[in-house]
Amino acid sequence: MTISFGTFSKLTAGFLFAAVVVSCNNKEQAKTNSPSTSASASKAAEPIVFVNSDSLVNNYNYFKDIKGKLQSKSKKAQEDLSAKGTAFQREVAEYQQKAQTLSADERASTEQRLARKQQELQAFNQNASSALANESAGENEKLYDKVAEYLKVYAKDKGYKMVLTYSKSNPSLLFADESLDVTNEVVKGLNDQYTKDKK
């Protein structure tokens, strides 16, 4: 028996939000920039940009921390389950060796006890899996909220009307000019914010 807990793949999949739409009544974008401005300045003139969510989750320190925490809990639960399973198998083997020497009542009593232990082991497995799945879902929601809240402020500051997301596993965005990719800038901002929050 092993805990069927996908190593945080649910979190990554759940994070691939379809789009974070930001209505910005920010009309102050009529700043006079010369045509030879930097790429970031030209991006600011665009109402729509995108973020590569694969790259974002792989480089966002908050995601790395919660991923590590959940993987650690999953490993601990699997170790506990393995230890309990080994002990149970040892008891079953001992019973099988002595079964012929036991009375009918002793055999029935031992088999009932072993059946209860097996049920407890299955319940432990299910409870551990459920607890990890629930915690993963909770962390996924926090992750989404953190990114969405940051992007609302970021988009308003930059004058963007919409921030789309792209992922190889869910390529709803088939093509976009690289000048519209603000992933690195967003990751840096998120990590700066996370560092401040930790302090």
Task: Give an overview of the whole structure.
- The chain has helices at 9-15, 39-44, 53-59, 61-98, 104-158, 183-198; strands at 19-21, 48-52, 162-166.
- With 199 residues, it is mainly alpha-helical.
- The protein has one domain (9-198).
- Strands 1-3-2 form a three-stranded mixed sheet.
- Helix 3 packs parallel to helix 6 (183-198) and helix 4 (61-98) runs antiparallel to helix 5 (104-158).
What are the SSEs and their pairings?
Blueprint: H1 9-15, E1 19-21, H2 39-44, E2 48-52, H3 53-59, H4 61-98, H5 104-158, E3 162-166, H6 183-198
Helix pairs in contact: 1-5, 3-6, 4-5
InterPro entries: Chaperone_Skp, Skp_dom_sf
Family: Belongs to the Skp family.
Protein name: Outer membrane protein H
Features:
single chain; 6 helices; 65% helix; 199 residues; 3 strands; mainly alpha; 7% strand; three-stranded mixed β-sheet
Overall geometric form:
rod-shaped
Q: In angstroms, what is the radius of gyration?
A: 26 Å
Taken together, the total number of domains comes to 1
Average residue-wise pLDDT: 79
Assign a percent range to the helix content.
55-70%
- How many angstroms separate the termini? 41 Å
The number of helical runs is: 6
How much of the sequence is in beta strands? Answer: 5-15%
Tally the beta strands.
3
What would you call the structural class?
mainly alpha
Largest sheet: 3 strands, mixed
Strand order of the largest sheet: 1-3-2
Series of H and E elements = HEHEHHHEH
Q: State the low-pLDDT regions, or none.
A: 1-39
